[in-house]
Amino acid sequence: MAIECLILGAGQEVGKSCVVAKIGGKQIMFDCGMHMGYSDHRAFPDFSLISPSDISCVVITHFHLDHIGALPYFTEVCGYNGPIYMTYPTKALAPLMLKDYHKIMVDKRGLEEQYSCEHILQCMDKVIPIDIKQTIQVDKDLQIRAYYAGHVIGAAMIYAQAGEETMVYTGDYNMTPDRHLGAAQIDRLQLDLLITESTYATTIRDSKYSREREFLKAVHTCVAAGGKVLIPTFALGRAQRDNSSFFEGLTLQANMYYKMLIGWTSQKIKESYTVRNPFDFKHVCPFERSMINAPGPCILFATPGMLGGGFSLEVFKQWAPSDKNLIALPGYCIAGTVGHKLMSGKPTRVDLEDTQIDVKCQIHQLAFSPHTDSKGIMDLVEFLSPKHVILVHGEKPKMASLKQRIESELGIPCQYPANHETALIPTTKDPKIVASKTFIKNCTSEFNGDERIAEGILIMEKGQNAKFVSEEEFLETIGIEGNAVNAVTFTQCLSLPNKIVSLETEDMILALEKELKKSIKFRKFEISKDCIKLDSITIRICSNNKSCNFGKDEDAEEMAMHLCCSWSIRDDEMARICLSVVKNMESTV
Amino acid sequence: MECPVDLSALTLFSPISRTASSSPPFSDNNDLIRAVPWYKTVASLNLWDPSSLDAVLISSPWALLGLPFLTRKPGFSKSTMIYATEPTVRLGRLMMEELVSMHMEYVRYYGSDKKSGLPDWMNWTELERLQMEWKKIVLGEEKEELNGWMPLYSAGDIKDCIDKIQPLRLGEEACFNGILVIKALSSGLEIGSCNWSIKSPKGSLVYLSSSVFGSAHAMEFDYLPLRGQDIVIFSDFSSLSSMDSDEEITNQCVLRYFIFSLPFLFYNSWVEKNGESEDQSVQKLTGADEIEDEAEKIHFILSCIVDSVKEGGSVLIPSGRYGVIFTLLEHICDFLGSLNIKVPIYIISEATQEILSLTNSLPEWLCKQRQEKLFSGEVLFRHVELIKEGKVTVYPFLYSSDLLEKWKEPCIVISPHWSLRLGSAVQLLRRWHADPKSLLILEEGVHAELALMPFKPVKMKVLQCSFLSGIQMKKVNPLFETLLPKLILLPESLRSRCPIKESELYKIFYYSKNVTTHIPSLKEKLEAYLANDLASQLQPTIFPEKNIAAARLKGKLLLRKGVYFLDLPDKPLNMSIKPSLHWGNVDPTSLLQVLNEKKIDGSILHYENSDFCVRVTKPAEGLIEVKSNKIMISCEDEICSALICEALKSICNRI
Ligand SMILES: [Zn+2]
Ligand SMILES: [Zn+2]
Ligand SMILES: [Zn+2]
């Protein structure tokens, strides 16, 4: 058995996340994203490598375009028509992202469209919304469950179980809570495979709040000096807190969604919510194009986050040449975007398709990008302890070093396949067996520390589940005839050790028990007033037993008091130990 | 299971008036109890030991109202798990807080209960004075329910209680002690109300509370995942109350609770169904007709409201069903708007403000149509807009200075219900009860006669309407045919009133109040998984004659999410594996042969049937007696008896 993972995107890169996993005879597509750095065929995963009708279901982790951007293409153009799952917030917010993107690429930049606005709506109509932790039975043998991922509102990690095989695909996640969203949270699952993002495979972040304060200070200084602040954003709802902020239409609309989806934010917000919705911003108003060059300070949040085009880029062109202004950049920018260019050292000039822009403004890189850092990845891998790890959504050299750490520190095999490679993850199946109810019930009798121990016989028959039964049930199954040799009883008589001969019968037994316990540990002897027992082994103090041969030869009228021992063949070994203990009692006075 | 409060019992208490000092008190011609009310909950709550409870499941906000009575009991154990859906917990908390706050009016009026022990009205002479019918409410049929009366909990009790609950999301699997996998699935009745699926290795169980197939607000009755379980406990009493308003029945429908002990869940199997018949029954179970019925009812209510308003009368709608009310609100506004009638609409309740915003942020628990609103960027309930537009105003209290300023009649007021004894409904009824133009809309199931007693003479119109509050009788049989459990538990009171088809496919048991029903155990085999690591250590012996292989197996027995699992022990076992089991036939010839191989001399003494005896002479004296069912060896020499033992072992099968 094996899980086969075909990496259609985000293999050794960030962008167009898409993995098709063959698991337990099912094929699941995790994410269906696009690459923002390309506008040709490279922007989408190569769907010719798969056949849409073989896919059992598509699961989308969150609304970022690198995770959902190719979905309308896959459903409406490639013709996939199976179930599509995503969380409620993702289903609510994804169309905004897709339409916004469509507007920029097709309407503004005049690129040839891969799918139409109509396609987006038709595609989203087919989506089945799911809740966090809700277990979805896709079909009889396949179930999926979403876990809170923290990255953006509605972001989910996906657990899938098909047959006996299990895996988790994380999508993007964040292991530290922030002001608006909680940290990723997942159960301790038994996993064959974990596919995790690795954007910050080697970064360890410092305290988020100090970075945030630093940023707010920079914003205040800039505004106080009459400058304008541009915060390109794609993580809706993030960084949206400050006085006198302006929103572009999209984000304002998204805010209304936030009110309805408040249950998906952090616990703290949820609880304070009933008193005051933190998404009711006092000084927020929609931004109009005419306001770009209006005098006076302002703060603008605009999409897309990496200045890859659209409104944020338009504003950037206007504001970049003034040194009074401040541009904030997200923690991560994809190659090919203006954001990426600005991050690699501080250039004084940026070449755009048609023009060149002087960059005199200040640039502040935001640290609160909502991905987990390397410590978070390691923590998650350790917590889940899967049998295998696959890294996606990262940069090759960093992934290589993280793989090293996972293998050496956690001892878990790890790989980071490139796009279009297939990773083969061997799985072992724990065999299913059946057991009788009474048998399981009786298993409580024996404990090893705090473990419950079951002991019995496993019967294996072709074409059937193995049966776990007690000895009695086994003998019944096998239909034993004739002499069950277990009924073989040995008897032997021993003279009383001198050491105890003068004692009362009951004290003799106690003395014997004490002696036996020295050699035979962890066993409980059953004692009565003239007898001591261990399983089938019986040592009885006997003075008048007709069936007993002891002393017969001595022609004694009165039989001497002695020890009559008997045991069945299965306890032969233990019986011989007991006998030798009794015999040795003389010598150990 | 469930922990409700019988709110209908609250009607026994005389309402109080805030303006009591200046205006004459309520008409004296009622004998209602004048005291700070106590509340009636499950009578046997006092009888069981709360520490023996393993888990409590709550299916709706109303079923939560009595929970603090349980959790505040001294013996209530910290390890008892309480499960409820998130909306149930949050709505339930708001309702309880509102109850406590409104209850304060009584306390302020009568002064707080200083003396400990039972209140005066509860002593027998006082009770004897009550009318027969009321006595029944206080005492129950068999006078056993007096125990169920309790003084109200405090805000602190509520908080403690809520903290003990583990809130569940929709379809979330909660694992209790590894043994039970508990899952809440929407029942369609109200936002957050649910049915329960409980699975254990020994069997599975469905607890079916009042469920609605088609709802205009809450997520539909999600019954497909409940198919093929072992036991269905049918606990939907709504059809009973609408068929027959017998006092006893209505009582039962308010007070529902079950106690399960774990061994109760005993057997399990998955019933495969053939696809065709399944499709048919699924069709019978859609809620389209229910939505239509409800729409008709709502239309009728709307026309009554408009009639009243046109005449200049006001309308009072006391209700505890938020989903229904918010839907009704949307309709009222639309309808009035279409007729161009401008009437102020007030919602007067302390909890409403929070409930309004809460209901608007639970898209996961709403019906498909409302979820679509989320996806198309509209608000889930239009009350958000209606309030913004000023068509509806929300006030915490009737006497808010704000409200007094803006108050205009005729108006439409929505208030909490509380059996017409608490909150704004009381004051408004005093104001309007004699106005024939005004209209009171009550839900069915409320004992209107008793509830309105203190407001006599009632001249205002009273419209009692039944909102769909459970599974319609005609859908019960098709539902069971779809769910196909092994066994169905029905309330005894349902036996005579509605014929549930007996079927070859399932057995039917009846349960009744305070009686433990024993369920037979049908399942003998349990499923388990064997860890690969452990399986690889097995050393099987093959038994060709039986065509099987068998091996001794010893491992750690675990319960993981309701499934047994055998794994390698963490620590090496203290004892070696048990000694082998031996069996096989012993005949004289082969016995002598193996004895010879061990250099033991022996001879057959006598031989009868298959019994025989062997005298051993060398290396020592001994006797081997072989009988059909046993072999006895007596030998005083250890070495010799050890040799005999080896010889015997060598001719036997062993494992
Ligand atoms: Zn993302
Ligand atoms: Zn991403
Ligand atoms: Zn003897």
UniProtKB/TrEMBL annotation, chain A:
InterPro entries: Beta_Casp, INTS11-like_MBL-fold, MBL, Metallo-B-lactamas, RibonucZ/Hydroxyglut_hydro, RMMBL. Residues 15-227 form the Metallo-beta-lactamase domain. GO terms for cellular component: nucleus. Residues 234-342 form the Beta-Casp domain. One of its GO terms (molecular function) is hydrolase activity. One of its GO terms (biological process) is snRNA processing. Keywords: Hydrolase, Nucleus. It holds the Pfam family Lactamase_B_6. SMART domains: Beta-Casp, Lactamase_B. This is Cleavage and polyadenylation specificity factor subunit 3-II. It comes from Carex littledalei.
UniProtKB/TrEMBL annotation, chain B:
Residues 325-450 form the Beta-Casp domain. Pfam families: Beta-Casp, Lactamase_B_6. The keyword DNA repair does not apply. One of its GO terms (cellular component) is cytoplasm. One of its GO terms (biological process) is snRNA 3'-end processing. It is found in: Cytoplasm; Nucleus. Keywords: Cytoplasm, Nucleus. PANTHER family: INTEGRATOR COMPLEX SUBUNIT 9. Belongs to the metallo-beta-lactamase superfamily. RNA-metabolizing metallo-beta-lactamase-like family. INTS9 subfamily. This is Integrator complex subunit 9 isoform X2. The lineage of its organism: Eukaryota, Viridiplantae, Streptophyta, Embryophyta, Tracheophyta.
